[in-house]
């Protein structure tokens, strides 16, 4: 029997309003916008889901065109601080997945959105089925805590002029001109990528 894939489109960042609009949490910002553009409820806390805010789309692609068969996917915002991202995913995988994912019929794929200092604002890079961390604290935490591969969506935030300012920089908000570039250039690439993954039922795709 052919497996029906289940896709978890997730983000890592820092929790709470204090960090909601910082560069480090751009993945969370994009997942919130994905929910709107896919005509889904905003991610919220659910009693049976640990470590994150979620929205679950069952038997529907919302506005995803040309989907050959109905399938399920989830938007998931990791609620741990960035350097503890792996722990939340690990707890989620050990509780929700065994209980709500029938192993005999579903194939689960984790797609993770995160900030990337080594890409300029507006750029996006996609790596399917990887465990590469590229020095990123959130991905390093995932590599330490998880025993499987994930697909990586790196969203460029650029680097500060001085290396010593990195910690302060990632915890600062985007300015207005940066937001314009981010949502004009980067976000459409991410939306198209997610729609392509869901439509083709595969993480082995390329940014259009």
From TrEMBL:
Matching entries from InterPro entries are given as: Pept_tRNA_hydro, Pept_tRNA_hydro_sf
> Which residue spans traverse the membrane?
none
Q: Which domain of life is it from?
A: Eukaryota
Write the protein's name.
Peptidyl-tRNA hydrolase
Keywords (A to Z) from UniProt:
Hydrolase, RNA-binding, tRNA-binding
Which Pfam family, just one, is annotated for this protein?
Answer: Pept_tRNA_hydro
Q: Name one GO molecular function term.
A: tRNA binding
Q: Which organism is it from?
A: Magnusiomyces paraingens
């Amino acid at each position: 029997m052919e497996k029906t894939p289940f896709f978890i489109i997730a983000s890592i960042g820092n929790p709470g309003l204090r960090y909601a609009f910082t560069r480090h949490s751009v993945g969370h910002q994009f997942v919130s916008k994905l929910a709107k553009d896919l005509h889904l409820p905003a991610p919220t806390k659910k009693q049976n889901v640990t470590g994150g805010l979620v929205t679950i789309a069952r038997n529907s692609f919302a506005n995803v065109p040309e989907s050959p068969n109905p399938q399920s996917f989830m938007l998931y915002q990791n609620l741990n601080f960035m350097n503890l991202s792996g722990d939340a995913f690990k707890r989620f995988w050990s509780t929700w997945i065994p209980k709500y994912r029938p192993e005999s019929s579903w194939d689960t794929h984790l797609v993770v959105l995160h900030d990337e200092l080594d890409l300029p604002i507006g750029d996006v890079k996609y790596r399917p089925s990887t465990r590469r961390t590229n020095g990123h604290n959130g991905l390093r935490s995932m590599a330490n805590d998880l025993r499987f591969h994930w697909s990586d969506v790196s969203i460029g935030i650029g680097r500060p002029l001085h290396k010593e300012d990195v910690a302060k920089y990632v915890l600062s908000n985007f300015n207005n001109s940066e937001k314009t570039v981010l949502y004009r250039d980067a976000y459409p690439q991410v939306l198209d990528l997610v729609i392509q993954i869901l439509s083709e039922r595969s993480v082995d795709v390329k940014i259009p």
